[in-house]
Amino acid sequence: MRQLFQEQPSLTGPIIEHRHAEELAVIDGILRDYPAIIEWVLQDLQRGLCGHWGREGMTADQVLRAALLKQMERWSYDELHFHLLDSLTYRGFTGFGWTDPVPGRSTLQRNIKRITEATWHAVNQTLLGHAKKERVENGRKVRVDATVTETTIHPPRVSGSTSGSGTSAPASRAGSRSSSAVSASTDARGAGLPASPATSGPPSWLPTS
How far is it, in rounded angstroms, from Cα 85 to Cα 110? Predict the structure, then answer.
């Protein structure tokens, strides 16, 4: 049966004197001030399952905090698993004591992915309301992540076509120039004039037999 919180976690250490640990302490306080957030996550975890049977698994609070850590640090699930095993600070933040077993990568992924988009939207609205209340943020501006990432698609090229044939613009222009040169050469021969150097054979600087 799922629980909201771990009732009595095993030994957890004090908060260390570090800026990142202080940030986690602030986040911890906000989550405690809004217990409805944990309720929403619990509903997602129990959706479609019988809540009175099976192993207890991760609490809703642990799932949410692990998800927040993963998002803040941009970790993979494997990295999240490692840091929960390795760091007493992260263990304390997520509610795992020193002697508590930490869920594996696949368990972390399975639980975090059960949090629905609607829940994340509600969490965001709650935190935005908190920020307005504390005069931290007014919510009138949005920061968009425009990080460039490598993909497997081909590099961009000049688009354009001739009569919808799909030929790119550079190739189309080169073909037009070639056609014009051939036409000019043909006209010159017909008029008894010397052919254009561009169509009179190999350049003069190439050796001839």
Answer: 18
